[in-house]
Each structure stands twice: as structure tokens, then as C-alpha cells.
Amino acid sequence: VAFRPELSRLIHPEAMVVAPAPHVALQTLVDSARAVNPAKVLTRIDYPWFEDSPYIARLEDQTTDQVTLIALDPGTGRVLRHGGLSDWPIELAFEIHFDLVSGDPGERVVGLVGLFIFSMAVMGLLIWWPGWRGVKRSFAVKFSSGSIRATRDLHRVYGTVIAAVILLGAGTGIGLAWKPWFQAGLDKVTVMADWPPKASPGTCEQTLSADDVAAAAQTYEDGARLKSVRFTARKTGPVTVHLHSKTLSRPRAADRVLVDACTGVVLGAKDADLVPWGDQVLDWLLPIHTGEWLGLPGRILMLVMALSLIGLGVTGYVIWSARNAKSRTKQTAATAEAR
Fold first, then answer.
1. CA dist., res. 229 & res. 27, Å (int)
2. CA 47 to CA 228: how far, in whole Å?
3. How far apart are CA 49 and CA 286, in angstroms?
4. Please, are residues 180 and 103 in contact by the beta-carbon 8 Å criterion?
5. What is the C-alpha to C-alpha distance for residues 160 and 280, in angstroms, rounded to an integer?
6. What is the 3-state secondary structure (H, E, C) of the chain?
7. Of the chain's two ends, which shows fewer C-beta atoms within 10 Å, N or C?
8. What is the pLDDT of residue 279?
9. Tens of pLDDT, residues 7-27
10. What is the distance in angstroms between the CA of the first residue and the CA of the last residue of the chain?
11. pLDDT one-digit tens code per residue, 90-144
């Protein structure tokens, strides 16, 4: 997931790598996406990650929550690839990591797993702490005392070194998975932006084109680059346009503009640079969790952290098994002696 765009391009080069060309009208892309499965609702179109990447559209079934992802050629609007999550393995991995492909209940479970990982990192540091005088000695690994002792030392030393990154990853993961509760807590100690705005959109039989809606948002944000356009289940409902922030260098920083699809009137806006600090805390969660706040080194660090959890789990199990085996041996010997 840390290298989601790059891996998708590696696995599906025929769909995820395109020849750079002038982009067709947004409405052409909308029509192409909806034509793939008219029974499903188009919920969003994400703009290309790279200059030679396609648009990615998302269709959702409102009754079964089944998702169809579509790669669209920017130059022609042609469908390059489409299918459910099983046809997009990297996107499936992301959805599993995000909410176990189970919506809100899955997010709550993922948050609980994050809490367990966070708690284990804290307890591991408390168990390891040898006092100031013993810190240097506690980083020693004795390979000469047998494989189990070496495994235990490596588990302790590496766990101590990587603990801060685990705490950071797990802590931000909890905030993302339990965002409604986290946001409610922040709302009690600081002012939060009123989003989405409580506005009444117009009613009409024919909505404006997607290009007109996007243009209205861009005009409002002084020509900022488009990042994503998100639709509601009701075709005449308001459209949320995400634009790249022109002032912030924070990864994923986006200004949001809510536009009336009937009239093109801006119903509300959320400028990433002007929101209260509580909203900025929420906005920082994802780039810190993915490591993007440190660029490529940060993403590599989060990958190392993820692999570390596997390594610590394996070595922890080995240590636990050896300790149990030793305990059983002692118990057997004590029972034999008593007899």
C-alpha cells in the first residue's frame, strides 16, 4: 500500500501507463465511466497520479456496496481496464488495510488492531527499559549463547529501535480508522471547520456538465489544479471538487469546493490553508501514516515498519514457544522426581 501507484503501474502497465496527450473533456470521461455499468452510481473520478497515468473512476452499487474501478485514457476517454476489486490486487490490498472491505464495521476493527499494536509497542518499551545505566548494555546481542538467546536479543534490540515508528504508524492509523470519534474529541477542545456546509442545492431536470461544475470550483479557487471530483448518489445532488492546494506543500493537501450541479453556484468551500488547527491535525494523519510527509524515505520507512511487525511477530512466537517448551521440560522433570 505504501507504493500503491507504482505497483499498480507495474502490474497493469497496459492500463496504468498511457501516452501523454491533451485531456478530453471531463464530461466525456464521466459518460464513459457510467456506460460501463449504468446500474451503478459514479461516485468519483480521480485525476492522474503522473503525467502518463490514466483517470480512475469508481462506480458503486448502492444496495450491495460492490465497487467497480475503471481506468480511463486521458486523451480519448476510452476505457482501458475495468473490474471489481479482485481485478485490481493493489486496490484490494488497500481496501483490506483500510476497512477489511467491510465499510464502517471494518474500519472499527482495523482501529482496534492498531490499538493492540500501539499497546504492544508501549509495553515492549516498558519491559525493555533497563534504567539509564543499563541502556548501553541492553543493546548487546549474544550470538554465542545459542539461537534462542540470540533471537530474544534481536527481538528486544530491533523492537526498541523501531518502536517509535510503530507508535507513529499505529497512532495515526487509529486516528484514521476511528476518525469520527477522534474528530468529535477534537471538536470539544478546539473549533473545527463546518464541513460539509449545510446548504440547500437547487433542483433541476438537467444538471450542468461535469466540466462546468469543475470550472466553477476552479474559478472560486483561482485556477487551482483539479485533483478529484466526487458525486452523490442523486445525479442532481451537489458535487464536491477537490483541488490541489496552491499554498501548502503538505502531501495530499487539498482545497474542497461544494458546487450545485444544477446552477454551478458554490455552496461552500474548505481551504486547507485556512482551516482551524484541529482540521489540520486530521489532514496530517494520512501523510504521516503513509510516510509521504518525508517523501520517498518516509514511504520506505513505513514499509520497513510493516515488515518489522512481521519479523517481531515471528521472533516473538519463537521466544514464547521456547519458553513454554522449557517450562514443560522443568514440569516434567519435577513430576518425575516427585514420583
1. 11
2. 6
3. 17
4. no
5. 30
6. CCCHHHHHHHHCHHHHCCCCCCCCCHHHHHHHHHHHCCCCEEEEEECCCCCCCCEEEEEECCCCCCEEEEEECCCCCCEEEEECHHHCHHHHHHHHHHHCCCHHHHHHHHHHHHHHHHHHHHHHHHHHCCCHHHHHHHCCCCHHHCHHHHHHHHHHHHHHHHHHHHHHHHHHHHHHHCHHHHHHHHHHHCCCCCCCCCCCCCCCCCCCCHHHHHHHHHHHCCCCCEEEEECCCCCCCCEEEEEECCCCCCCCCEEEEEECCCCCCEEEEECCCCCCHHHHHHHHHHHHHHCHHHCHHHHHHHHHHHHHHHHHHHHHHHHHHHHHHHHHHHHHHHHHHHC
7. C
8. 94
9. 999 999 999 999 999 999 999
10. 58
11. 999 999 999 999 999 999 999 999 999 999 999 999 999 999 999 999 999 999 8
Using a 10 angstrom Cβ sphere, with 0-12 exposed, 13-18 middle and 19 or more buried, the burial of residue 307 is exposed
Cell reading at 276: 482551524
Round to whole Å and give the CA distance between 314 and 13.
35
Closest C-alpha among 58, 18, 23, 55 to residue 37? 58
Strand partners, 68: 59
CA–CA dist 68, 311 (Å, integer): 35
The closest alpha carbon to 42, from 237, 212, 211, 202, belongs to 237
pTM: 0.90
Q: How far apart (Å, rounded) are the C-alpha atoms in residues 298 and 304?
A: 10
Q: How far apart are CA 214 and CA 257, in angstroms?
A: 9
Cα(244)–Cα(221) distance, rounded to whole angstroms? 10
Residues recorded for the chain = 339
C-alpha grid cell, residue 161? 529501535
Half-sphere exposure of 133 (CA within 13 A, CB side): 0
Cα 304 to the center of its chain, rounded Å: 17
